[in-house]
Design a protein that fits this description.
20% helix, Alpha-Beta Plaits, two-stranded antiparallel ribbon, alpha+beta, 2 helices
């Protein structure tokens, strides 16, 4: 499923929970990078075309539940 342009997605990483293993970075380098051994999302414009199901799956797979994906109607 491709990204719906009518939905705005926000990705947050709780650095208190993130252990910096980089699983999310390896799975979706278009969305995440490591900074100071913590996952950090790239600006949304850089990953606007990422499959939302894949993004949610990567967030759900985080062993520390450090990744939150919020979806809101745009407009």
């Amino acid at each position: 499923m491709s990204a719906d342009p009518r939905v705005r997605r926000t990705v947050r990483v709780d650095h208190g929970l993130c252990s910096g293993t980089g699983n999310c970075v390896r799975a979706l380098p278009a969305v995440f990078r490591l900074e100071d051994r913590k996952a950090v999302p790239h600006p949304p414009a850089e990953w606007a075309d990422v499959d939302p199901d894949e993004l949610r799956a990567v967030a759900d797979a985080c062993p520390w539940a450090a990744i939150e994906v919020e979806e809101q109607p745009d407009g």
